[in-house]
């Protein structure tokens, strides 16, 4: 997984606690740079428009801001 992240094919979004204003130590979410890459890696995976739109929104936030968190 580290190799994929270092090659910038995927981004990691760490969870952030809004109320405590700190990064939470739980599972991160991962977003692919190109939605077509997801389909290449998971050819039998059915279209899930919710995840695809979430990925597109994350990429736009990543383009605008240096740090993007989930939570």
TrEMBL record:
It comes from the Bacteria. PANTHER family: AAA+ ATPASE DOMAIN-CONTAINING PROTEIN (PTHR33295:SF18), ATPASE (PTHR33295). This is Uncharacterized protein. The lineage of its organism: Bacteria, Bacillati, Bacillota, Bacilli, Lactobacillales.
